[in-house]
Fold:
Amino acid sequence: MARPIVHLALFKEDQLEQATEAIHALRHLGVSDKDMSVISGVPYSEKILGRPMSWTRIPLIGGLGALAGFLVATFLNFGTPLLYPIRVGGMAYQTIPTAIVVTFELTMLGLLISTFIGVFVETISPSFGPQGYDPRVTDGHIGVLFSSQPELDPSLHETLEKLGAEIVHGAEAKKLWLF
Structure:
């Protein structure tokens, strides 16, 4: 089996509908969603482009951070006075009104720190889809980057050109190297 070739179909900035139709046409011709990527200077949502929603682990990471902050706050509020009981002015060892404030603050601190770290890790994680770039994307064009088998090339190119795409072959598309 031949090695997949990366192609870039460029659409002008006012051809968003044609780019969406091109994604559907590529899917219909056998190119899977993991072999497609949309690059543009404007952050279009997946819903606008008819793509499946991309899921991240950031809500899970944030929830775990909030849980960790809550557990630390609970230990500080209720565990520490039990480990080191000191009577101050006849007050109770655990006071609920002050515990609420500390619990809220540490829960939110855990949430914020873990979310920041999660977003940072997601951002620097490698992308496994097709990679390439064309300078016209910066000027407003919408690029549909896809990899396909060489035997599908003629039908894919014909379909995309009917939709108004300008095809940039894989050898001409510049590789994006982050490191």
Notes: Helices lie at 16-28, 46-49, 58-83, 96-124, 153-162. The beta strands are 5-11, 36-40, 142-148, 166-168. Residues 58-124 form one domain.
